[in-house]
Amino acid sequence: MDPLTLLAAAKVSFEALKSGIAVGKELQGMAKDLGSLFDSIAAITRVAADPKGSLTSGRSAQQIAMEAYAAKAEADAMMEELKNQFIGEFGIAAWDQVLAHTTQIKKDQKAAALEAQKEWDQMMHDLVFWGSVFLSAILVISILVLVLLGVVRR
Fold first, then answer.
1. What is the residue range of 7's domain?
2. pTM of the predicted model, to two decimals?
3. Does residue 154 sit within a domain?
4. Percentage of the chain surpassing pLDDT 70?
5. How much is the pLDDT for 131?
6. Does a structural domain hold residue 80?
7. Which of 71, 80, 120, 153 has the lowest tally of Cβ within 10 angstroms?
């Protein structure tokens, strides 16, 4: 995705969070928006770190780089404003806890994805191995049958 599309998604989540905090909405009710904002900001950060852009986008390298930089700067400003508003309403300990939990959950998700990929790779390896054994057995049996039929007919 391009940085401007990611930024638009971040703005939607940001505005929902701002209004939720302003009216004293419970944290649980804002979890989806907070997660969406964090995901959008992380995506903007990744794009800004490596703003390749599309070769067929019709935009210059400078334009792609400036869009990535501007989106990152605006995303950082949104996060800072949200952080200040969140801390003002719930305290710095709550903010630190949200960030710590977010980091731990992302680590857990990454570990689970890696484990699932390892299991998939092992299953495919086993499937190929046992498939090869099965096909080899069929080939050997077929050859034996053909040889026996050839010997019997003589």
1. 3-90
2. 0.61
3. no
4. 92
5. 96
6. yes
7. 153
